[in-house]
Specification:
Elements: H1 2-5, H2 8-52, H3 57-82, H4 88-104, H5 106-121, E1 129-132, E2 135-142, E3 146-150, E4 156-160, H6 161-166, E5 169-171, E6 177-186, H7 192-205, E7 224-230, E8 235-244, H8 248-265
Antiparallel strand pairs: 1-2, 1-5, 2-3, 3-4, 6-8, 7-8
Amino acid sequence: MLDKIFSPETYSMLGQWALSLCKNLIVAIIVYLIGRYILKWISKLCSKMMKKSKVDTSLQTFLLSIVNVVGWLLLLIIIISILGVETSSFIALFASAGVAIGMALSGTLQNFAGGVMILLFKPFKVGDYIEAEGFAGTVKEIQIFNTIILTNDAQTIIIPNGGLSTGKMKNYSTEKYRRVDLDYSFAYGTDLDKVKTAIREIQQQNPLIIQGQVDDSNIVAEPWVGLTQLGENRVVVNTRTWCKGSDYWTVYFYMNETVYQQLKERGFMFPHNVMDINIVSK
């Protein structure tokens, strides 16, 4: 029995196995060293490309970590295969884990994908005034999963990036200039020419209001006043006033307050709802 175990054939098989193992080990070490160098090169290349494309810093770090993790997993599978270990079970395990994690974090992954889209394509940036998901405010921070905005009354709103990237959104900060549209109602019989003249004078009094075409835009920003509606008990005059986006609310409140004060002083009457009641006696 012992003669068979320690026979020359056994020693020969053990020698061949050890020699094959040593060869595979050397190849695995060489593949590891080359793979590590390639992974570092890929990481540096991706980093340069993202910096050149001006990708957000937080997104750069996250994407680079994903690239490194995927690269090292592939390198590990290749090394295990070289050493003669069956890799199909490892691949199946990774695939099953990926599917399970994806199903468990479906909503989170949707928000993550939305965050990546926002940081890559930049439909808005920090400091922009946007309106989305029923909220309006200034973008305070763009995170991987959420966007934080600050409303005009100092409320912090956290909006998931999934709905923000796929839903409708208004960005009021993309253009340098904005138009302030306001309607004013007057009683029937009011002299329309005098009303228009008075409002134009008010528009000319404020230096924040643009009085003509701006040099760096195709917008014709001349203030405009016109009759837009004949209501049941009132006529509606619309005013269109251009200003810089940062001056929007200043001009908005200026127009409302000044039109009310000055036109009231000039004798113009602002109508109110009127109800006629007829009493019939029998």
